Amino acid sequence: xxxxxxxxxxxxxxxxxxxxxxxxxxxxxxxxxxxxxxxxxxxxx
Length: 45
Fold this sequence. Notes:
Blueprint: H1 17-31
C-alpha cells in the first residue's frame, strides 16, 4: 500500500445489520468467547 489514506464508502452487503449480527453470533459460538455489545456513544462524556 502506498499513498495517503483515503476515506471510502462501503458496500450494501457490508452495511447489512442482520448479516453482521449473525456473523457476531456464529463467531462467539465457534470461539467460545463472548463480548458484550456496548451501545454506540457509551462511555463518552
